[in-house]
From TrEMBL:
Organism of this sequence: Mycobacterium simulans
Pfam family, one: Fer4_15
Cofactor(s) annotated in UniProt: [3Fe-4S] cluster
Alphabetical list of InterPro entries matching this protein: 3Fe4S_ferredoxin (IPR001080), Fe-S_cluster_ET (IPR051269)
GO molecular function, one term: electron transfer activity
Role according to the record: Ferredoxins are iron-sulfur proteins that transfer electrons in a wide variety of metabolic reactions.
Designated name of the protein: Ferredoxin
Entry keyword set: 3Fe-4S, Electron transport, Iron, Iron-sulfur, Metal-binding, Transport
Length: 64
């Protein structure tokens, strides 16, 4: 399992994470990221990694 965390202080709402990984991330009413699934299994790992690697603010951390 991988634990997914978004640092709300870093997130500025580019939306890349929830566009690339809609099963793991969602948007709040301001366009900032919300974690939908805090503990992802292998079926969502690729999405979680895509979100982490494509966040320009390094706001997403994955704990393995
Ligand atoms: S890609 Fe990064 S900055 Fe953009 S909404 Fe997602 S967490 Fe926030």
């Amino acid at each position: 399992m991988i634990r997914v965390c978004v640092d709300a202080d870093r997130c500025v709402g580019h939306g890349r994470c929830y566009t690339l990984a809609p099963d793991v991330f969602d948007a709040d009413e301001f366009g900032h990221s919300v974690v939908r699934v805090e503990e992802v299994g292998s079926e969502l790992e690729a999405q979680a990694v895509a979100g982490e690697q494509n966040c320009p603010e390094q706001a997403i951390t994955l704990f393995r």
